[in-house]
Amino acid sequence: xxxxxxxxxxxxxxxxxxxxxxxxxxxxxxxxxxxxxxxxxxxxxxxxxxxxxxxxxxxxxxxxxxxxxxxxxxxxxxxxxxxxxxxxxxxxxxxxxxxxxxxxxxxxxxxxxxxxxxxxxxxxxxxxxxxxxxxxxxxxxxxxxxxxxxxxxxxxxxxxxxxxxxxxxxxxxxxxxxxxxxxxxxxxxxxxxxxxxxxxxxxxxxxxxxxxxxxxxxxxxxxxxxxxxxxxxxxxxxxxxxxxxxxxxxxxxxxxxxxxxxxxxxxxxxxxxxxxxxxxxxxxxxxxxxxxxxxxxxxxxxxxxxxxxxxxxxxxxxxxxxxxxxxxxxxxxxxxxxxxxxxxxxxxxxxxxxxxxxxxxxxxxxxxxxxxxxxxxxxxxxxxxxxxxxxxxxx
Length: 395
What we know:
Elements: E1 12-14, E2 23-25, E3 33-34, E4 40-41, E5 46-47, E6 50-51, H1 57-83, H2 92-119, H3 135-155, H4 161-169, H5 172-182, H6 189-212, H7 218-245, H8 249-271, H9 273-283, H10 285-313, H11 315-336, H12 343-364, H13 369-385, H14 387-394
Antiparallel strand pairs: 1-2, 3-4, 5-6
């Protein structure tokens, strides 16, 4: 889902495309509940069937971090491994169809588990909670989810996996533009500085990739760029819908991927790509359906750990952890899969990391352009009054 996921309707919002995670919170992660007898209990924290509510904050953080690192590193490894199968590169869209199918099953199971916990009715008799968000909103979300996941998967047929991850790290750029256009939000200088660093680092990384890969193809750049644009729109549409209708993440996942599966299946049946993809996967069932199941499961479970991290530690900490995870994933990619390497990859990646760091800082310190102008005036006035400054002028 490389860092697109849905948060729970009561507190957090995070894009529903698993790979990596940008998040915003509308309530404090430290919000406490009050029991019937008046005692204050800690905020509920669950990861599927596991209740982490009564663990201390450090244990919650460490468990969430471990889950994010292990599951998303496995997710990235399996995704790249599938594309190393000889002849598989043209079938990225069929992999997306398989992934959507698995996510539908996972989402249905999770919805039933939620209803089971709430009602106590036997699991096989329980019915999922009714839908909260209108179907017309899900029609839009499904199309955007399909664009994000399909284009992201297919881009691996044309790009190095580290380049794809670097593009995903720069999701802030289209998200920033999209939130300004769609929701009318305003941002400060740190946000724009972060976007600028990401643009520079991304351009440098792509240039290095084009020089190191003899089969570098701009189609891959176009695909992953289109995936990021869809991802930016998803985040803003999701945030508004979940805020207005208080929908749980399992509902958003189930309907977004369910309708996306129908969209993609119809298109692939019309174009004939469904049958060619199915024939290839039936020839290599372990490498496609088998690895695809593990790939999808690790991504889906990874979402749950990211959401738990957002709830327990807040969005800035979650963004820092998921960014560190992406850096480790890139390092594993170079170690486990043979590919050319240049120091330009390192420097451009560090510039992108600087941009992400500025974005995290901007969440904690809301610096506006007016604040920046005021600080610059204060600095210039101090410089004008400084004895050293006077001495230099006299000299």
